[in-house]
Amino acid sequence: MKFTLMPTLAKRKAKEMVVLGIDPGIERLGWGLVKKNASNSERLDSGVKKTSQKKATPERLYEIEEFMDNLLSDKKPDLVSIEKLFFSKNVKTALLIGEVRGVILAVTQKHRIPIREFSPSEIKIAVCGYGQADKKSVAEMLRLQIEFPQRKMIDDETDALACALCGIYSR
Questions:
Q1: Hey, which residues are catalytic here?
Q2: Which one, of 90, 75, 92, lies nearest residue 22 by Cα?
């Protein structure tokens, strides 16, 4: 069986990989781009895409689709790592997150980028070594593994960076 590299991966050094982590949300979508080379991992870029609650859901989903399309075209990651919807107390929120995930998965497929999905506990295990770690612990362990920007980050962004690291570690 012959093994061939994806076009984006073939352009980079053999031991280098760029992963885009996504923490899906309708109001706030966290994203983080992490590069892994032979010796370490580094944060290339990250942020939060916000949509207005004043807009209708289809309009917000389209805004996320456009954002993801531009992000994938611009950053050209080797892999997209996304958090699975594992559990939600609010059914309406769970449905909206599912719709956002569908948009993200479709856009990623359009760009022919491999996708890996991880549960929250898998991400916590990869970053902290403990699947029940709280958000503060995840952020603290993440800070030990990659350099954070000089600005304050909200949970959605740190969750996306943790998801990206999980994608790197799973490779």
A1: 23, 83, 156
A2: 75
